[in-house]
Structures are given as C-alpha cells and as structure tokens.
Amino acid sequence: DTGVSQNPRHKITKRGQNVTFRCDPISEHNRLYWYRQTLGQGPEFLTYFQNEAQLEKSRLLSDRFSAERPKGSFSTLEIQRTEQGDSAMYLCASSHSPGTGATGELFFGEGSRLTVL
Amino acid sequence: AQTVTQSQPEMSVQEAETVTLSCTYDTSESDYYLFWYKQPPSRQMILVIRQEAYKQQNATENRFSVNFQKAAKSFSLKISDSQLGDAAMYFCAYRSSVRNYQLIWGAGTKLIIKP
To answer: Which of A19, A78, A84, A113 has the fewest beta carbons under 10 Å from its own?
Structure first.
C-alpha cells in the first residue's frame, strides 16, 4: 500500500461552481477523516467515517458540503456553490479505530488545494 | 472545549544544534493523547511523536523527545542534532480519549534549519 492518496492535488474554480475531491485511504484502515487547513493555521476537523458510516460532522461543514464513503473504502468530499472562503487545503487521513492493539495514528494524504476565484 | 496553543510562529536553529518547540493546551480531561506532527513544504503531515497522558515517562523517538508536564499542561518538542531535513511546519495536537476521532491542533511553528 502506498499510503493515503488524494485527487486532484490542485483545483482552481470559479465562485459558484461545484467541486469534488476524492480520497483513497490505506486499505486496512476503517476510519477516514476530512480536515481543512488554511494558510498559517493548523487543520480543522470536518468529518469522519467509520467504515461507511459518517459518525460525526463539524459545524464547519455547512449544508454546501457533503461527504460520502459508499463502500467503506474511498471517500468523496463535494462542495456545492463554492465561495471564496472555501479556498483551503483539504486533507484526508485514515486510521484504525483507537483501542486495544491500535493507537489510532492518523496517516495523511498530501491534500487537495482548492482555490476559488 | 479543548484548545492547543503554539506561541512560536517561527524558530530557527543551526544545523547540528538542539531546538525546543513549545506547546500548551487546555483541557478538563485526565485521559488524552498529545502528538507532534511535521508538515514539510508541499508534503503530507507525518507523525513525529506521541505521548499518552497517563504515562509519566516522556516519549522519545531517536532525535526527537518531549517534555510532558501534565500539571502545567505543557508539551514541548526537543529536536537534537538538527538536520536540514527537519525543516518543516511542526504542529502540536490533542486527542481526547472520549472524542477519539478528532484532533485539535495548534497553529504550528515553522522550523528553519540554518546550514
């Protein structure tokens, strides 16, 4: 396994357009996370999945944002009607569930950078 | 709510010297985890070191070690024998043992290595 993969790496779009990002996690990981990172800041939690179930969503995830993980493998993050404030790096990470024998360490992808003009 | 504060936006160190990055956090919980992550330019975030709050012994990973002061809610990272490849943004992060799906992050410290 080569790690967490995110596509596209860069996306430039005009305000009002829809964009979709894809994340392929490490195959044996049951958890998948989406974070958003703006310049000069640490990442902010958006949402996470355990297998195919979306178990938690941040208040940052407005109704224009939707995330799916249909088969418990890859995930997509869609942003509808993009706004300039959506410009950020969108990070995906995966992990085992923390617990006996597993630390729950997050493994990150390289991120998808969104620029909204 | 938990918060993580990194008060040093930027630090620089001479190659082969030692540098310490600071992190403080605020929580009312007694059981949690603390992490230092490294983010090189245009590269993914990678875990440097992890500390469980219930362990009194400070974690060490090769040239990286932490000074964990639970009562003071302080978690600093020491990098010994700094190398050019250590240049990166370093983020301190907190994870509750209850809400174990969410990392709460500091704003980061940019580490510059002078050759």
So the answer is: A84
Per-residue pLDDT of chain B (115 residues; tens, 9 = 90+): 889 999 999 999 999 999 999 999 999 999 999 999 999 988 889 999 999 999 989 999 999 999 999 999 999 999 999 999 999 999 999 999 888 889 999 999 999 999 9
Nearest chain B alpha carbon to A31: B101
B-chain CB neighbours of A98 within 8 Å are: 100
Are A43 and B108 inside 8 Å of each other by CB? no
Contact yes or no for B106 and A42 at CB 8 A:
yes
* Amino acid symbol at B38: K
Backbone region of residue B9 per phi and psi (left: phi > 0; alpha: psi in -120 to 50; beta: other values): alpha
**B53 CA to centre of own chain:** 14
